[in-house]
């Protein structure tokens, strides 16, 4: 009997360890929503909705952190876009959110101006959405470690488009095999690294790093280019021609952003 108990305990411990390992490897899903806006009035309406209605409602549904970002003043699209980043533990959580918000009377009241906007006074021009999945070696999003004023920060959102699915997957492999580690070593404080599973520019991966200001951002890229690990990796045959287009957006977090 004692031996049986020991065996049972050992099996339980092994199952627990396996379960913990699987949970640790579970990858987040993200919605990256881009609001295209035409004027300051739409931006103000969006800010009011996101800060007073959507983000509090998302928190209530167990989404701890929501990011809101805007192009910095020097960017050609400044004042024309607002980016909303929503992390989910699963696709089921993503699919359930809309229905839960529809039943949330506090949210409906707080967001009434946005939800019930008239056809000739909309809060945006269009909405563009990408659905992403965290990379295997960075499966969860993270908060930026920056403590500087949000208005001074530079959050860099990049999309690397691959010429084919095969070559795109090689770029994902490159990130998982050491490229992400370089950013971490340089204290670029990443928010996420992800594969796009539905979006406008597939096949592509997307990621976001954060920097105290533009000067620091430029220095980080200078250091990245000179990093020995990057020098050893970038010319390997398996990683040749994996990016056909690099779309870079320089953003700052809204004051009410969680990230």
TrEMBL record:
Signal peptide segment: 1-24
Q: Which domain of life is it from?
A: Bacteria
Q: What is the lineage of its organism?
A: Bacteria, Pseudomonadati, Bacteroidota, Cytophagia, Cytophagales
What region holds the NIPSNAP domain?
Answer: 30-109, 155-257
Q: SUPFAM superfamilies, alphabetically?
A: Dimeric alpha+beta barrel
| Keywords noted in UniProt | Signal
Q: What is this protein called?
A: NIPSNAP family containing protein
